[in-house]
Amino acid sequence: MSYGGWYVREFETSLAQTFGCADAVTVASGTCALQLAFELSGKRDTEILIPALTFAAPASAAVRAGMHPVFVDLDPKTWQVDDELLAAFLEERCVRREGHVVNTASGRRVSTICLVHLWGDLARLDRIHALARQWNLVVIHDAAQCLGARYKGLPLGATVPDDQVDQIIITTSFNANKIITTGAGGALIAKSQSLCRRARHLSSTAKADTMSFFHDDYGLNFRMSNINAAIGVAQMEMLSDRIHRKQRLHQYYVRAIRKRMDGVRFAHQAPESAGICWMNCIELPQPSRSVIEKLVAQRIMVRPVWIPLPQLPVYSRFEYYQRDAFSARLHEHAIMLPSGPGVTEAQADRVVSALAEACR
């Protein structure tokens, strides 16, 4: 079978267990999973709170689902979305009106928080889930970078309170640069069986009767193939080892950089979170562009951090809630270092030596 089949179900079962959820639905990409999550939330023409600094996929998927992003700056300590700013936005900019939360500046209803868990770490889940309960908001977790991360010893899905299971959805990605890959692919994961049933139905063209081709909704063809799922089943067997390798590489980078360089900052991981160190990102005391160019010229594949979404013309019309524009500073000064699970200490040492020289 090209779609469906034993490997699809096996992969979905493994993902659900890893996230501590009831079920998972595999799809063609992480962006497809986000699009499906926003479709399921049914919050068209409402506002969604999204980190200002992230890959563009969650914002693009939200806009295509008819939603309006409100970008929120990152926390300068954790480099995750600033939960204090989230709370301040809701308290200072919003009012409750006829059972809904309304942004007084735009007049639109605020319906959703989209958490993008960056660098392999997790945002402050207790605080944000409590905000979602207080304001009756849906939470979409973009976990593309943090498969296998834990919060207070629990997988991401296990942190979902029982009274919020119908309002919290997790998505992830299996793109080639993720901790496990199926070449291309993604998944939607939830503690709610009904949400997953609905997601599986919509992503399979909403075909209610396969024999008569009766479609009962505007379906999407987002399904993952059985071949891709077979790769995913094999990849999941290596997840623990890859997390260990990435954590060990991160520790080596921290020791080596602090020994040879001054003024370099790493994100401060919250004590509740056990991240997977998916990407080693550092903030330099100087602008990073020339440093990146010098390292790339030596065939060391470092990368800049994403451009803050509010700075992109396509997103400039949306509201940006910030305190000190930390996202812009991080973009200007940060570098993402080679972080694959196969990077050896000798290779990492070459990276650090070249980095120190380039920063002089």
Automatic annotation (TrEMBL):
<protein>
    <submittedName>
        <fullName>Uncharacterized protein</fullName>
    </submittedName>
</protein>
<keyword id="KW-0663">Pyridoxal phosphate</keyword>
<dbReference type="Pfam" id="PF01041">
    <property type="entry name" value="DegT_DnrJ_EryC1"/>
</dbReference>
<dbReference type="InterPro" id="IPR015424">
    <property type="entry name" value="PyrdxlP-dep_Trfase"/>
</dbReference>
<comment type="similarity">
    <text>Belongs to the DegT/DnrJ/EryC1 family.</text>
</comment>
<dbReference type="InterPro" id="IPR015421">
    <property type="entry name" value="PyrdxlP-dep_Trfase_major"/>
</dbReference>
<dbReference type="InterPro" id="IPR000653">
    <property type="entry name" value="DegT/StrS_aminotransferase"/>
</dbReference>
